[in-house]
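Reminder to self: keep the SMILES exactly as supplied, no canonicalising. Ligand is zinc ion.
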Amino acid sequence: MSGIIAVDIGGTQIRAAVYPQQGITPTRVRRIATVSGEGSVFDRMAALIESVRLEETVEAVSVATAGQMDLQTGVIVNSPNIPGWDHFPLRSRLEEKFAVPVFIGNDANLAALGEWKYGAGQGHNDLLYLTISTGIGGGVISRGCLLEGAHGMAAELGHVIVLPDGPLCSCGVRGHLEAIASGPSIARCVSEEIASGRASRLAKVTDFSARDVAEAARLGDELANEAFQRAGKYLGQAVADFLHIFNPSIVIFGGGVSLSGALLLDPVRASMQRLVMTPDYLDGLQIVLAQLGDDAGLLGALAQARLKLSELSPTG
Ligand SMILES: [Zn+2]
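Structure tokens returned for the bound complex:
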């Protein structure tokens, strides 16, 4: 039996799973905390991979992780989750350790790939994926190819300016979509309004999340509702721009904030409909929620490995 090891490096945990040659059911999955007092992240991750490998022949190791990376060199340029992984040569370190082909990719790009191959985007050749959670990430499939760019840093769809001189983004630039429509940004918008004297059922809650804001909105809280209207409006504005650039046949929303459903997606649709150049962009366009949930990173990494291996040996 030969398998592929997929690894998903998240902010709180690192998961490694072994997948057989066919299908998307792993034969083994293990996880560790991303941050721990003991040992380097790389050493602990390598031990995790070793522990799922056991006696199996491994064809490849494929890793999904957040941040920017240079796909030509396999170097992590910058990692928001792992201190010290600036310009870290992840691919070569793993290749030295395991002596098999190693593939790395941005987690949002790979989630787009996973949704395309195994989830909500199956059957589409032109797909746009947006994940809305702590940040906003994106991925684009165009004519059946994952858009990577010259260095692999394409499709940072959360880092587009939707409000010049607007709120400061985690990346340091003002007015990015992420600074307005991510989960923490939605919660921050509500707390700022409360601080300036607006009434809300969240006024008595000390530390609330976008999920709490969604709950309050469902219970009729006007301010909470406005926060989602605002986030959805700017998200729709960005998506209208993306439709003009990529002309997808499906837009997939993933990430925790997307689970607020119509609360977010209704204003997204309204904004898009208002801002597209011609309604033809919306003709047959599907707007759906992601299907892979927490497994998007692992299955995206699996999809990446299968694609790259088939490129390495097209007849095999
Ligand atoms: Zn940004």
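Points to follow up:
The chain is about 35% helix and 20% strand.
The mean pLDDT is 95.
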